[in-house]
């Protein structure tokens, strides 16, 4: 089982290496991190001078960090969802699911492994490129949650669509799963809880209020999404 | 007659795969978002939304459409039918441009940016046609979705960056020679809207011809052999 999982993951890596997606998902978060870390403070400086305001972007530095923590797993899982859609259209998925890899193994090799790798990448980026102060515990918790949320996004793209075209349409729609991140920053009334079904909302709440209690709904919403979508994923194969 | 049948097929394909639903949904979100912005920002924001989404719809979706048609052997049937590459391309680009224009008008109305309906519609329609033609050129020779997405990055960068710069104030008259800038100039019904229309028509025609050539070659080589 372990060997077949490794091989299945190897196929995935060789696919995204061939079409250069691996390079892009590795480089793009680093470029974005550099822009956030060095570009945003410069833009803030220019804006404050230009608009004669003491701060404009500074209150939202944490939001930039949150996007940064989401970016690596989101990109890895997006690449993975695209590979899965191609494999599904070409009937490869059904073949792989009846090999020793099985349905669960297929999901693990296509989503859990990439999410685990991106978890490490995300931790490093937050450690070295964040705009605000983060404790190590918070970094680890946050990256764990963003990795889980990204698995849910990729599962959503793959499970709900019947082919590549629907998959691309879904991937566009799935960007809305990130919508929960800015909500606690901008919607200060209790109307913000309308977004409580989104893991990204609780992730933002956790980082904003630094209350570890929010880890529970953040984890639960991700797991519920994954559980519901995994059932759909199983039926699909 | 053939073009009518092709167009009907493409529109029903896009309807079946949720393009219409998706863009009704996105229009509602964009319009909702516009109303949360201060009134003075709405015009630029609406144009930015139109330019980066409904107008660029073809560039985003063309890879998936062509790859699906390849894997379902639709192109094999097209290749041996009397359909000409030009007709195939025209139908693809027209069907997508219709959605873009309708969504563009809705967002434009909400943002209050439509001062000349003809120029505005021409800008969105031709812009979408152009973006889709670029998407088609890229999609014709691409093996996977990921490769398509990567290949569209430089194209969308080249079209979008000068256009966005122009929208936010880097306004030099010669810039309307750029296809993205000419689209913005048309949609805003700027001083140089008429020359911009001619420039955009020229770019669109050029890319339409190029994409027809690429599709002709693609249809000659489907199924792994050169016909």
Please, what is the average pLDDT of chain A? 88
User: How many domains comprise the coordinates of chain A?
Assistant: 1
Mean pLDDT of chain B: 88
The count of β-strands of chain B is: 0
Cα-atom radius of gyration of chain A: 19 Å
| Oligomerization state | heterodimer
Instruction: Measure the end-to-end span of chain A.
Output: 19 Å
Task: Give a summary of the structure in a few sentences.
With 237 residues, chain A is mainly alpha-helical. Helices cover 78% and strands 0% of the residues of chain A. Chain A has helices spanning 2-18, 21-51, 61-89, 92-97, 102-129, 136-160, 164-174, 183-186, 199-209, 215-236.
How would you explain this protein's 3D organization?
- The complex is a heterodimer of chains A (about 240) and B (about 230).
- With about 240 residues, chain A is mostly helical.
- Chain A has one domain.
- In chain A, about 80% of the residues lie in helices and about 0% in strands.
- The longest helix of chain A is centred in the first third of the chain and has 31 residues.
- By secondary structure, chain B is mainly α.
- Chain B has one domain.
- Chain B is built from ten helices and no strands.
- In chain B, helix 2 packs antiparallel against helix 3 and helix 4 runs parallel beside helix 7.
- The longest helix of chain B is centred in the C-terminal third of the chain and has 28 residues.
- The model of chain B has no long low-confidence stretch (mean pLDDT about 90).
- The chains are: A mainly alpha (about 240), B mainly alpha (about 230).
- At the A-B interface, helix 1, helix 3 and helix 7 of A face helix 2, helix 4 and helix 8 of B.
